[in-house]
Amino acid sequence: MTDAPELRPIVAVALPLPLRREFSYLVAAGAAPPAPGTRVRVPFGERALTGVVVSAAGQAASGMREILEVLDTDPVCPPDLLDLARRTAQRFFASTGEVLKSALPARLPAPGALRYRLTEKGALGRPSGVEASVLEVLAAGGPVHAADLPKGTAEALRSLEERGWVRAVSTFRDRRARTETAYLPAAGTRDAVRRSARGERVLAWLAALGRPATAAEVRLATGAGPAVLRTLTTSGLVRSFEQPVREESRPALAARAAFRLTLEQDAAVSALTSAIREKRYFPALLQGVTGSGKTEVYLRAIGEALGAGRGAIWLVPEIALTPVFARELTRQFGDRAALLHSALSERDRGLAWDRVRRGDARAVIGPRSAIFAPVADPGVIIVDEEHDSSYKQRESPRYDAREVAALRARRARAALLFGTATPSLEAYHASRQGRVARLLLTERVEAKPLPVVSIVDLRRELPRPDEKGIPLFSRPLVERLRETFDRGEQAILLQPRRGYAPFLLCRECGHDFRCTNCSVARTVHDRGQRLVCHYCGERLARPLRCPECSGALLEAIGFGTERVGDRFAELFPGVPYAVLDRDSSRRRGAGAVVEDVLAGRVACLIGTQMVAKGHDFPNVTAVGVLSADTMLNFPDFRSAEKTFQLVAQVAGRAGRGASPGTVHVQTFHPQHPAIRRAAEHDVDGFCADELLFRRSFFYPPFCELAAILVSSPDRERAQQTAASIAGAAEGAPGLRLSGPAPAPLERLQGKWRFQVLLRAPDRRTILAILESCIPERPPSGVQIAADVDPQDLM
Ligand code: ADP
Ligand code: ZN
Fold first, then answer.
1. I want to staple 305 with a disulfide (CB 3.0 to 4.6 A). Which of 117, 379, 535, 760 is the partner?
2. For the CA of 539, the nearest ligand
3. Distance from the CA of 683 to the center of ligand 1, in angstroms?
4. What helix, strand, coil percent values describe the chain, rounded to 5?
5. Which ligand approaches the C-alpha of residue 515 most closely?
6. In a mutational test of the pocket of ligand 1, which residue from 445, 645, 656 has the highest number of ligand atoms less than 8 Å from its CB?
7. What are the backbone dihedrals phi and psi of residue 777, each rounded to the nearest 5 degrees, phi first?
8. How far, in Å, from the CA of 731 to the mean position of ligand 1?
């Protein structure tokens, strides 16, 4: 007989399923219940799933199943993160298990994979008892597996690790955290130990130096090779340990210290510093024009947090730039910094995560999911390029890292810094209302001027015969580019469409080669040789004849980045250029393209939105926006905001170095306020107008918005389900309901899509309405997705 189930402990487990509830499981007979934050394998229907224990007590029920396997000896997820994941799920009508799945790396190093090393502190320490025997083994040389330490030392090892005398390192070498072996004279002299004359000399030199030295330094100063050091360590006269490689951090630190902060930077840093030291929640918007030195403010704030014994999280949009900033961070903070990027291999991500969880690295940089990094006591959380919509996850769980950052910073009593030149209307409004502090950087560093922006009215440009009515390179832009290249300076050209051309047209019947699964025209790629659907990814060879009328007059219409490149090469033969967009970064890695620009190997960078994001290319003096109108035509209430941000951001890449910059913005809407205000660098003017519009039409930030998307291969069913959801929501107090209506992308990957939009004065009302109108189980063959605070209404 086993124990009666009701006497066995029960735990609540969050599972990575789109279900907003937790599941209860019995703990194996005789076992202690796994602590919250521990991963477990549990049976679910016919499958086994990996979930995370969220609390020690669940709901007892008959027929309850038992945990199959406990995967961690220690909880991998600290309590504050568990709490954050739960609150995130709640705020975004998502599943805690799915939030945890995006938060935790899929692969964490197994406990047995860890080896231990002595730290500098440990090398200087004077332990006794069991601890001394552990140190003895470690002091003799490199990292040692826990299993190779004397028996019964686990407790001592843990206590040494807690005090920072010993550090766990992974078996896998972490390429980002380079270390070197350093040597110190052991504490207390052992006169009885015999030493050679050489050993004597090394010891005396080390003692006089007063800091640890590397083998190379020892050899340089005393002529003694590694054998002498080895003898000294084995006889206990010298201790060795691993330290971060120093040459890397030293000169960089010196160069940085040479910066005198501008008065405005200084004011921002002081405000952050006091909040970090006083452990005060301090939300702030750092609104700084492009090139005003926001990065320097971030780095100082991180330095303050580390100096105060706290941690730091720096979020960056998921872009080419991450490695550049990550390098800056490691250069400055050595192995106290960790990069948590989704592009890392699962193993590397697991390693970095583990390093952070153990407290070895305390400053983390990464895209939105890094907001869940297991940093203990973050003192500052930075959201760089705050306006970037990539902070919102578009698939389930649809959380917004900016809001999660606020939840986390408030609980951790941290400084929360939203930095950008072009704030989102939400952040701008909050700062205007005084809900977040406003830190302003109104000038570029060293009083460099902002670039002069000219608007080029495309209605007055005569297209060349092969441009089909859409001029691509206006005369003023071409002239300016010539000048730029003649002077040996660089340029950036923005064209917000990738591929060769937006679509292929049959000149005889007007057929546009729509995707059969999606309601969009296929994009022309590979110099016209291929048609690709950007939504479902289907690729076709370019047809020779129209499937409708068999006509052979097929023509690629418009310009994507690839075709812009071809035209550029015609206009500027011999001028090296590179393309930066999703395709090229998949092929080559965006980092490589960015390096090419920095190193001057290309004179012109052509690309989509990706060229507008945060780059600091000192030699770029000319920027051209080939078409500013693409975004304006989007059926989205944020289209003006997105256009303004894009134009202002790409303009901000010009003139950041010694020579001033110019920008040409080509448009068919030269009077549009978004374009005019961007050309005038008038953030306040734009935001004031736009807030008026948002207020009168009841859009965010004056309301809370949620989109319910219903999709099914069966159009009828999708429409009916959407109608019944709208019916259930209708009449709720405070609700403004729109739809059901076909989504702007009515068909996607073979599914029909209908949308219901909910607007209400506050989040609580929206969540209550979602709760009441979305059925627990969707009808079969239908999918329902709720997106709270959506950034994308397509
Ligand atoms: P932003 O992010 O505001 O566009 P960056 O942080 O990229 O601007 O800074 C622009 C350039 O100015 C960088 O090359 C940076 O090293 C430099 N910089 C930052 N602060 C100072 C300062 N106080 N004095 C001189 N140069 C600075
Ligand atoms: Zn498609």
1. 379
2. 2
3. 20
4. 35, 25, 40
5. 2
6. 445
7. -120, 125
8. 53
Residue identifier of the C-alpha nearest atom 19 of ligand 1: 293
- Calpha distance 217→208 (Å, rounded): 14
What's CA 769's distance to the chain center, in Å? 31
Partnered with residue 532 across adjacent β-strands are: 523, 539
Question: Strand locations in 474-571, DSSP E?
Answer: 490-494, 503-506, 523-525, 530-532, 539-541, 554-557
**Nearest atom of ligand 1 to the alpha carbon of 618:** 14
131 near 159, Cβ under 8 Å? yes
Which atom of ligand 1 sits closest to the CA of residue 652?
4
DSSP codes, 545-578: S-TTT----EEEES--HHHHHHHHHHHSTT--EE
Looking at residues 686-706, what average pLDDT do you find?
95
Distance 261 CA to ligand 1 centre (A): 9
Distance 758 CA to ligand 2 centre (A): 28
**Can you list the alpha helix ranges (DSSP code H) found in 697-737?**
715-729
Q: How far apart are the CA of 535 and the centre of ligand 2, in A? A: 5
Sign of CA dihedral 502, 503, 507, 510: negative
Do 242 and 115 touch, CB atoms closer than 8 A?
no
Q: What is the pLDDT of residue 776?
A: 84
Interatomic CA distance for residues 30 and 34, integer angstroms: 12
- The pLDDT, as a whole number, for residue 248 is 34
| Per-residue pLDDT tens digits for 4-26 | 555 788 999 999 998 889 999 99
Which ligand ends up closest to the CA of 748?
2
Q: Strand 378-384 vs strand 311-315: parallel, antiparallel, or unpaired?
A: parallel
The owner of tokens 């660098």 is 681
List, for residues 765-783, the tens digit of each pLDDT value: 999 999 999 998 889 999 9
Ligand minimally distant from the alpha carbon of residue 297? 1
Query: Rounded to whole angstroms, how far apart are CA atoms 141 and 239?
Result: 8
CA of 528 to the centre of ligand 2 (A): 18
* CA 336 to ligand 1 center in whole angstroms: 23
411-450: pLDDT as tens digits: 999 999 999 999 999 999 999 999 999 999 999 988 888 8
Give the torsion through C-alpha atoms of 78, 41, 396, 778, to 10 deg.
-140
Distance separating alpha carbons of residues 473 and 40, to the nearest angstrom: 59
Smallest Cα–Cα separation from 33: which of 61, 15, 7, 63? 7
pLDDT at 327 over 80: no
Q: Which two tokens stand for residue 30?
A: 């005789």
How many Å lie between the centroid of ligand 2 and the Cα of residue 393?
Answer: 21
Residue 370 CA to residue 562 CA, distance in Å, equals 33
Ligand closest to the CA atom of residue 537: 2
Is 679's pLDDT higher than 80?
Answer: yes
Ligand 2 centroid–CA 786 distance in Å is 23
Angstrom distances, CA of residue 307 to CA of 302, 418, 786: 8, 21, 42
Q: Indicate the length of the chain as a whole number.
A: 794
Task: Name residues contacting ligand 1 (CB within 6 A).
Answer: 259-262, 265, 288, 290-296, 445-446, 616, 656
For residues 42-69, give the mean pLDDT: 87
Structure-block tokens of residue 250: 């030293």
The residue among 374, 375, 437, 378 whose CA lies nearest residue 409 is 378
Nearest atom in ligand 1 to the alpha carbon of residue 289 is: 3
The closest residue, in CA terms, to atom 26 on ligand 1 is: 445
3-class DSSP state for residue 625?
Answer: strand
Tell the residue nearest (CA) to atom 23 of ligand 1. 261
Q: Which atom of ligand 1 is nearest to the CA of 294?
A: 3
Question: Quick check: 328 pLDDT over 90?
Answer: no
**Mutate which of 296, 299, 617, 620 for ligand 1 pocket (most atoms within 8 A of beta carbon):** 296
**Which percentage of the chain shows pLDDT scores above 90?**
53
